[in-house]
Design brief:
The chain has 182 residues and is α+β, with helices and mostly antiparallel strands. The chain has helices spanning 2-51, 56-67, 109-116, 146-155, 173-181; strands at 53-54, 73-89, 94-108, 127-128, 134-141, 163-169. Strands 3-2-5-6 form a four-stranded antiparallel beta sheet. Strands 1-4 form a two-stranded antiparallel sheet. A hairpin with a 4-residue loop joins strand 2 (73-89) and strand 3 (94-108).
Amino acid sequence: MDEISQPIAYLLGILFTTFVVVLIFTGKMDNNSQSYVNDAVEEFVDDSCTTGYIAPEKYMKMVKRINNTGNLYNVTILCNSKATSPYVDPENDTEKADAYANSYSTYNKSEVLDYMFPDDTTTYNNYNMKNGDYLKVSVSLKQPTYSARLLAYITKDPVKTISYSYGSYVGNYEENAAVAQN
């Protein structure tokens, strides 16, 4: 009996060790991909907020960088545009002196990309933003990575390991700090 169980134990030990090494290696690949995606998104958002516009070339550069990880991602863009208008008292329908009302319009990825990449032309447009606008980019995996698949095999739960969301205000931070706290 010992002659049969010992080779089986060695084989199971080798398979288990190989599986653990592969799991660690793929986990490290996910960590590297996460860092790479974070850097690409932060660079894009910070650059767009600093310049006050989203350049088509910079958007394409970000997408190319995150796709270089070998994974497929969902990219979401939200731009909240701040609009200030005089405050109108609802009781007597008059404007109040030195009182203003802020409102926000939200533009999503399709609206931004449709403006930047119009169908009827070969020229691209910059998507202009103004001081006080808030740009947020979110990235998440479409499909699980190898590490997530291995973990799902062990835990029987689907896992998506790479996702990131980053946003920033356009323009002067001091002017936007009160808005960020509310």
